[in-house]
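Ligand: methionine sulfoxide. Inputs:
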Amino acid sequence: MLHMKKAEKYELAMKEIVAVWDKDIHLTGNLANITAILKTHFDFWWVGFYQIINNKLQLSAFQGPVACTQIAKGKGVCGTAWEQEQTIVVPNVHEFSGHIACNSESNSEIVIPVMCYNSVWGVLDIDSKELNHFDETDAVYLEKIVSFVSNNITLIIPY
Ligand code: SME
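Predicted complex:
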């Protein structure tokens, strides 16, 4: 069941994301705005994108503390979401085997793969200081946001 108050916040965030998307600038600027919108509306600790370059997830636009710059396929939550091509919700990162702790304050996490032409382009990764922060409402709406990115990624200057 969807959490309605949270759903309303996501609806508002999505409107802002669509409104500020600028097809006439490079991708990273647009991704940076998405992380800013999500960080502003929600009590997230870290929000960011990793992009697959040279067969590694490489750090892209983010909001929050300094983060790991490279993640291999199958490693950590991000590399696992890439390998499995599906959203991963981790209620307690300390119980996720292979979790990569970029920051010791993080306790729960959600990672959503960003698809492009039927293969994984990268991931959206969000960390929370709270245990068990992310639920089905987050997964549903973050997948919608990522789907918007996927649908627009090819129409934009790709760096
Ligand atoms: N925790 C992630 C690494 C990225 S940071 O959280 C920003 C993982 O296990 O893949």
